[in-house]
Design goal:
Length: about 400
Amino acid sequence: MKNYYIFAVLCISFVISCNKPSYSEKEVLTTEQLLVASETTVKGPRLSLVADQPIKNVIFMIGDGTGIAQLYSGQLQEVGVDGYLHAQRLPVTGIVKTHAEDDLITDSASGATAYSCGIKTNNGVIAQDTEGNECVTLMELAQKAGMKTGLVATSGVTHATPASFATHIDSRNKYSEIAEQMVESEVDVILGGGLEYFIPSDSAGSNREDQLNLLLSLREQGYAVVLDKQAMIEEDSEQIIGLFSPSGMPSMNRVPSLAEMTNKAVESLSSNENGFFLMVEGAQIDWGGHANETPYVVREVKDFDDAIGVVLTFAQENPGTLVIITADHETGGMTINGVNRENTIVDIAWTSTGHTGTPIPLMAYGPHAVEFSGWWDNTDIGKKVADLLGFENFPLILSADY
Ligand SMILES: [Zn+2]
């Protein structure tokens, strides 16, 4: 009986392994997709440590699902094997552990809440603790301190990462409610996709089940609502919401690009003498990882890296600016198996179509950047930013009767 069992298992494994394309068949990229450049290219000079001084602005950038292999494959595509991306120009690197309260593998809601609130929570939960109590976010404390605030993302702006900085809800999937909370959040600049949850159900492309017109509510509050790149560029209101696609922004021919949205946000927020807190998310590096599509990943890493270039230029010109670039988790278990120098093909392999528990990289530049060097838990990063900005009582949980 035992022998039959082993034989059956062997047969099943054989069938499964034979039906599954090998990694190299499935994932090898053509030269057009992933060319290993023959000349060294750098995106700009390597940045140095800067003298400590009070922090005026914080730009917190999250490459969703971005591990070392995602960044490195983006580097190979963009600047070749000897080149350096903008993300690789920062003087300080750290490593971040990402587990959620209820799982070794985090999702973007729990991952972003660790940064925004400095606490562990369960997967799927947006800026609440495991008991359903709200936690105060860095962005809310920044507003209290007189800083301007901004959220920029290539997903819908109601997606888990931006939502975790400005809203509080027990499920990341309650997009309509998140949009309503976003309207009340008083975040000064909100740019990305996600129009579908801001327009009434009888409007074309709406994904709401009610007749709320949140664009109207936003206009009544004084926001300028922009729906295309040109309108975004020309708008000079203090408060701007730009929604450029029904849900996530397109990956191919994205208009505006993450760099263009980031540039607008920085330009608008930097008029404030008390500084600003801006969160920028390259959301779709994760989506390319879920799909195990390397060309998607490297395209999104480039879009994210272009935005990093904009941010580093601003930070160099405005010395009180702390830049933190990290991820919420790794996606896909992506790894680089080798490269054939003769025909310039890189062999990428994946171990998962979901998130993994592998710790992720962090890069920092600006005053106090060196304090982010080393291994950290993701909650430590939020706490450190709060500490550097002088926000006391952080993390802060609001009890139900608050
Ligand atoms: Zn994901």
